[in-house]
Design goal:
Elements (H helix, E strand, L loop, with lengths): L16 H9 L6 H14 L2 H10 L1 H9 L8 H18 L8 H20 L9 H13 L8 H11 L3 H12 L13 H4 L14 H23 L3 H12 L6 H8 L3 H24 L1
Helix pairs in contact: 2-3, 4-5, 4-6, 5-6, 7-9, 8-9, 11-14, 12-14, 13-14
Amino acid sequence: MSRSLLPVDVMSPGRNLEGYIHAVNGIPMLTVEEEKELGEKLFYENDLAAAQRMVLAHLRFVVHIAKSYSGYGLNQADLIQEGNIGLMKAVRRFDPNVGVRLVSFAVHWIKAEMHEFILRNWRIVKVATTKAQRKMFFNLRSAKKKLAWFTHDEVNSVAESLGVDPQVVREMEGRLTAQDMAFDAGTDDDDDKAYQAPAFFLEDKRADPARQLEDSQWESHSNAGLGAAMEGLDARSRDILQRRWLSEEKSTLHELAAEYNVSAERIRQLEKSAMKKLRSQMETVLAA
């Protein structure tokens, strides 16, 4: 169902949350007969005006459900907006012939959208990714009545009621009580707080004397190996590689061809052969 079917001010609680709540509470609720009539128009005739009336009449229930999730520290207007999406999905799928009121049917869809929003935005690192973890997340939040850690008996009680292993409860409890921390220090952090950022606990290998010595020795060894390998080539091959790859002003194939009185293709072949020999000799020298 398109959001354009509904008034912009009603579908945008973020603009004025208090005004939004006041507005939706003023929308008349539907009687059983009105809801059935509108539901049949939508179900059989795809009457979008009927769908609009059904959605508007139930926006107050979305607000009520959103308030039950206020403990997650997320913006209430965002939760309501997500719940409204779930309400519209429920209205589109509502079958008036089943004999269930729309509010009872829509609760599942409203909560599902809110749950997805909470799991996406509650923490930087996702605390629940699988279906079982998501169920555990919300059930554990409901069961946890205090900020302190669960006792051993409480863990066993929650695990038994949810049908999971106690270790699973402990693991999710740890995720719930953990706090996000920025990897780098904040721009406003003073020297006493900045060092606590995780970035300061990483090893800086650039300042490792052993690593610096190893790199220096490897560079010297490589340069010596390259010099020895170059000496093993004939003069013409050595000159071609020197001027094609090692000189600051590199020569072209045609320049070298004119100087050696051969074709450019011949210079390319000599260069390729010399590179192959050089690579083989370098491997021998560096392996020694």
